[in-house]
Amino acid sequence: MPVKPHRSPKNTKSGSAVFDVKSFLDSTGLGRKVGKFRGKEIVFAQGNPATNVMYIQEGGVKLTVVNETGKEAVVAILGPGDFFGEGCLAGQSICMATATAIAPTTVRVIEKNEMLRVLHSEHEFSDRFISYMLARNIRVEEDLIDQLFNSSEKRLARTLLLLARFGAPGQPQKVLLKVSQEMLAEMIGSTRPRVNFFMNKFRKLGFIKYNGEIHVNHSLLSVVLHD
User: Fold this and answer.
1) According to the model, what pLDDT value does residue 227 have?
2) What is the pLDDT of residue 11?
3) Which domain holds residue 57?
């Protein structure tokens, strides 16, 4: 049976039930279902119809775009608590990127009409979603500045810290999801040999541990903050 408890039994002063954001995002129901994907499995492809918003519960997803000549670029790596596919809410009829699971991943798939209904009717949810999108826009601006003005070494350090979710609510991840050096090179606009050079440098300095999995130390911040 689908679980539908997105209203808390607690009442507000007016006597109406309180909308429970977590229960809504964790439960199935009308217009909401669970999607499970294996590592490297495509969630949706660039050019597919844009019909759903997705919320990551476990695992991670990379977003890639391909231009007319076939060149591919990684534009984002997302983890638990992140939304994607939100372009359908702004009138996009097709997906502008390909979403691929980078580890076993569980997502909550929310149909466009259900997402719009909840955004219009539940202020707590809409506040959370708007805050998330504003933070995402700020991140895009910071990424552009990073690409324009920072060295490859700083860009790599910042990307590793972001992937470890330093500065995000909750505890940073000590071990990153499976992210290859090729993927890191695409994200920072560099080459795999340069990424390999800096990864070895960071490891020798004790900023990371790297043995197939990447363990990020908060001391890596010193690379980003150093002029």
Assistant:
1) 62
2) 46
3) 7-142
Q: Which two tokens stand for residue 93?
A: 């009829």
64, 98 contact by CB (below 8 A): yes
- Mean pLDDT, consecutive 10-residue stretches, the chain (227 aa), reads 43 55 83 93 96 94 89 86 94 95 93 94 92 89 84 90 76 69 87 93 90 84 80
Report the 10 Å Cβ neighbour count for 195.
24
pLDDT at 168 (0 to 100): 66
Report yes or no: 175 and 213 within 8 Å, Cβ to Cβ: yes
pLDDT attached to residue 82: 92
The per-residue pLDDT for 53 is: 96
Residues 81 and 122 in one domain: yes
Q: Which CATH number does the domain housing residue 185 bear? A: 1.10.10.10
Give the chain as a 3 state SS string: CCCCCCEEEEECCCCCEEECHHHHHHCCECCEEEEEECCCCEEECCCCECCEEEEEEECCEEEEEECCCCCEEEEEEECCCCEECHHHHHCCCECCCEEEECCCEEEEEEEHHHHHHHHHHCHHHHHHHHHHHHHHHHHHHHHHHHHHHCCHHHHHHHHHHHHCCCCCCCCCCCECCCCCHHHHHHHHCCCHHHHHHHHHHHHHCCCEEECCCEEECHHHHHHHHCC
